[in-house]
Amino acid sequence: MSKTDLPPSYLMPSDSLYLVDANTRMAHIARGLVKRRRAARRLRYAGIGAIATALAFLCILLGSIFSNGYTALCQTEILVKIEIPAAELVDATGAIDPKKSQAFNWSGLVKKSFRKIFPDVTGMMDKRSLGELVSANAGYDLRRQIEAAGIVPAGEMAYWITASDDVDMLVKGYMDRTIDEGARRIKDHQLIWVDQLHEQGLIRLAFNSTFFTAADSREPESAGILGAVVGSAMALIVTVLLALPLAVMSAIYLEYFAPPGKLTDFIEVNINNLAAVPSIVFGLLGLAVFLGFFGFPRSAPLVGGMVLALMTLPTIIIATRASIRAVPSSIRDAALGLGASPMQAAIDHVLPLAMPGILTGTIIGVAQALGETAPLIMIGMVAFVVDVPTSITEPATALPVQIFMWSDSAERAFYERASLAIMALLAFLISMNFLGVYLRRKLERKW
Amino acid sequence: MVSFMMHDTNSATQMKKGNDRMTNAAANQIQADDVSVFYGDKQALFNVSLDIEQHAVTSLIGPSGCGKSTFLRCFNRMNDVIPQCRVTGSIRIDGTDLNGPDVDPVLLRARVGMVFQKANPFPKTIYENVAYGPRIHGLAANKDELDFIVEDSLQKAGLWAEVKDRLQDQGTGLSGGQQQRLCIARAIAVGPDVLLMDEPCSALDPIATAVIEELIAQLQDRFTILIVTHSMQQAARVSKRTAYFHLGELVEYGDTKTIFTNPANQQTEAYISGRIG
Amino acid sequence: MRNDHISSSFNEDMAELTQCLAELGRLAQTQFAASIDGIATQDVAALQALIEKDRALDELEAQIHTKAFEVIAMRAPAATDLRRVLVALKLATSLERIGDFAKNIAARTIRISEMGNERIPGVNIGRMAELVNSLVLDALVLIDTPDSQKAVQIWSRDVEVDHLYGTFNQEVLASMSRNADMVPTGSHLLFIAKNIERVGDYATSVAEQIYFLVEGVMLDDERPKADREVTINKI
User: Fold this and answer.
1) Does residue C141 form part of some domain?
2) For an interface test with C, which of B257, B259, B272 has the most C Cβ atoms less than 10 Å from its Cβ?
3) At C229, which CATH number?
4) Is domain B4-272 classified as CATH 3.50.50.60?
5) Which of A230, A287, A221 has its CA nearest to residue A76?
6) What is the mean pLDDT of chain A?
């Protein structure tokens, strides 16, 4: 390079740092370095501060939910000795006759046996008051237990009977004894009885398995999330079965087959827009089209799944397209070069390699759908359903809707159960995310 | 001829009319006439005409960006994959214009195979890599025939001895030279007449390159081979005819011996002797 | 040194080169042996045939030249391969020159025979001719099986040829100075002797090339030459 190729140095000021000797220049740079390091440190602290704040809020949120919900893991029970009259229940062979069992007054039996603990309680009012200490469904629970066992035990047996939700709240300490009797659900004389039970050791807090094995109920002590979980699971299965194939095929079409032009651009823009649409709009769509026009059964997981599928479709399409683009074009070229049709090249080669990304996108989309409440409310999954649904066309409810309904309820006991249900939902979401991460790590390929 | 070629002509009866003449003729007259290629408004190839000699290796040489890969891809219509790519002029195999309306690119690519610059075996087993082509074209009636095709192709590619005990291993686990030979085996398993090779050795070390060049020399008995190479020494070693391209134009086309000892064109001489980039 | 190249056609090219060289060597040696035989027998017909046959050697040399050129252009040979090709070029030239000298000897022998036997000096060129012939044969063996030590041996035997040449020169000159009739034939004989001595030089050159092929460096020392000045002054 000759001297004439260099830019004329007279354009630079004579004290320019570019032209001075190396030592001066290095000293200047070293001085500036101090400021630069300081700025970097400030930025780092700001970042740490932001993360710490976020974590703090997260801890507060989780902490409050946990503190509200963990007591729901236990349920108060009262030990009652009951003698079941076998003669009124069994048929000729000695097995339990369902019709006789249906006609039998189980509830009365339980209450009568309970009252035996307090022999000096007389009078209709007092007796009724005493009976209120026991769960209203206690008789039904006992009946189911005996029917499941198949035989009627002879003689008097001790049973742990579920206490009423008011007693439960009292035992767990949520009821303030000091306030005026009129403002309390447990009256003074009932308090005395409960204390008596404590003294006799006839009352305990046991693990609340009902929460995980029963469906919704009017009585909090008999309410569980199983129905909601099954309903959510069914809806999610429908969602995945509908959304995944549609999304993958759409993405393949848009990526490889759509002719470049205004129409394709329009479709692509709108898919991205759909991902941002509020979920309640999809609920309205489901209500109007699926329920109103097509006449699908209300509050069924089928319809819930269809609505959620529409919601998740854009997410999965976007994830699929990104994964497809990440597959090196050399693989597709090699397949095409062998004489594979574009569809064969896409399905045989690109799709299997894009699967990890697609699965991750699906799991993220489905986890998102799991927590959606508004669209499900619109299509009617807010119904009070006491049975665990057995098919996708039966009325059902979903877990977030169940939480919504419980948190709206009057009984104090439902409030703690709602918190526990939230924890169950969070646990499910976290495990789905872990599944997504695990699948992605396992299926990831190195090129 | 290997047995699977007969299956190929059986399926010929079900092909579209425009392709019938292509597979039934024994000779492969390959002619390019006045071919130009445009990427959008930019012209990459200017009126190239040449005849490819059968059962010989023809190499396309020239500096980067001179259009040789573009020209190569015209022969199996891989330029279709690139949007906004337009090919004018005619390329004829046995008289049928490849860009004609009744020629199906998928069928064309079963007749004209391609090996790419960077070895791109599928992330599947070695067996699956070679078996994919015959499978999708239905060349094997049963598993035994497919096994035979796979073994034969790997033999022809000079890879059988090295992989016969590990056909179920991943194709991507082989060395670079082996991977490229696997890609060659994969291409010839479909039984093409013509092999297009786009700088097949550019990513390989000299020994692996020499092995593949020897393989190419042996393959030319069965296939017509068109190879693009940026190494003119490779063209000198491997090919019988050489075409020199410069900035999208065909400058000289002739016997390799003549081009390297006494080229007719001054530009060719300058390129060969390293006087321009 | 006989490892095969990965490229079989490269092997074939080099084999072809070697084959042509061996052919040319055989031809050259046959021509030379025939020419020195002819000095004694003076069979004119055979000598004419020999002169005609020289064309074959020229063609072979051109063939080797072209082949070597192609190998360099197309194969870019390196190391031993490169030396083999370059040496082949020089050997072809040397062998062809040997053939040329054989032709010249034959031509002069014919001229001598026309002049009648009584006018030939009674000198024996046989010893020198035999020695040079054996040098050529040994050189040919070297072409087939290169050996640098044997090459040096051949290279050093050239001194003896020079001695014999000097002696022969003296005898012929003496004979010519005694009898003026001998001068025409004598001068032919001198040229023939010179040609034979040159063949010896070229055989030695072959040995030098083979040495270069094997060792990769030229033979360093000056080839030992007999002091001709002294010889001439001894008359």
Assistant:
1) yes
2) B257
3) 1.20.58.220
4) no
5) A221
6) 87
Tokens standing for residue B41: 């408004």
- Cβ-Cβ pairs closer than 8 A, B with C, add up to 31
Cα separation, A157 vs A159, in Å, equals 6
AA letter at A295: G
Name the more confident of C119 and A129: A129
Q: Do A339 and B116 touch (CB under 8 A)?
A: no
Given a contact cutoff of 8 angstroms between Cβ atoms, the answer to whether B87 and B74 are in contact is yes
Q: Is the Cβ of C65 closer than 8 Å to some Cβ of chain B?
A: no
Nearest C-alpha in C relative to B235: C74
Can you give the residue ranges of every domain in chain B? Answer: 4-272
Chains A and C share 3 or more Cβ pairs within 8 Å: no
Q: Report residue A400 as tokens.
A: 């977030």
- Please give the residue of chain A at the shortest CA–CA distance from B173: A447
Output phi, psi for A39, to 5 deg: -65, -40
- Mean pLDDT, rounded, for A181-206: 85
What is the DSSP code (8-state) at residue B103? -
Query: Which of B100, B48, B60 minimizes the C-alpha distance to B234?
Result: B60
CATH number belonging to domain A226-443? 1.10.3720.10
Kindly determine whether residue B120 and residue A348, on different chains, have CB atoms separated by under 8 Å. Answer: no
- What ipTM is given for this predicted complex? 0.84
Task: Please give the Cα distance from A35 to A46 (Å, whole number).
Answer: 17
- Residue-range domain boundaries for chain A: 74-210, 226-443
Structural domain boundaries, residue C17: 8-233
pLDDT tens sequence for chain B (277 residues): 332 233 334 444 433 333 433 443 345 689 999 999 999 999 999 999 999 999 999 999 999 888 899 999 999 999 988 888 999 999 999 888 998 888 999 999 999 999 999 999 999 999 999 999 999 999 989 999 999 999 999 999 999 999 999 999 999 999 999 999 999 999 999 999 999 999 999 989 999 999 999 999 999 999 999 999 999 899 999 999 999 999 999 999 999 999 998 899 989 988 888 886 4
CB A161 within 8 A of CB A140: no
Contact B236 C75 (CB under 8 A): yes
Per-residue confidence (pLDDT) for residue B5, from 0 to 100: 30
What is the spatial distance between Cα C228 and Cα C153, in angstroms, rounded to a whole number? 22
Torsion angle, CA of C177/C180/C181/C183, rounded to 10 degrees?
A: 60
Q: Which of A333, A338, A348 sits opposite B186 (nearest CB)?
A: A338
C228 within domain boundaries: yes
Total domains in chain C come to 1
Judge whether C22 lies within some domain. Answer: yes
**In a 10 Å sphere around its CB, with 0-12 CB exposed, 13-18 middle and 19+ buried, how is residue A105 labelled?**
exposed
Whether this prediction's pTM lies above 0.90 is answered by: no
Give A16's DSSP letter.
-
Q: How many angstroms separate the CA atoms of C155 and C218, rounded? A: 12
Assess contact for A136 and A130: CB atoms under 8 A.
no
Q: pLDDT per residue over A349-395, tens digit each?
A: 999 889 888 988 898 888 888 888 888 888 888 777 778 888 888 88
Q: What angle do CA B252, B254, B260 make, to 5 degrees?
A: 85
Q: What is the pLDDT of residues C115-132, one digit of tens each?
A: 877 667 767 888 899 999
- Cβ neighbours, 10 Å, residue C55: 11
Residue A207 neighbours by CB distance under 10 Å: 11
DSSP at A345: I
Cα B60 to Cα B37, B63, B230, B251, C195, distances in angstroms: 16, 10, 8, 11, 53
Query: How far is the C-alpha of C231 from the C-alpha of A373, rounded, in Å?
Result: 124
- In a domain, residue C207? The reply is yes
Of B78, B118, B136, nearest to A337 by CB-CB distance is B78
> Is B134 within 8 Å of chain A by CB?
no
Is the minimum CB–CB distance between B109 and chain A shorter than 8 Å? yes
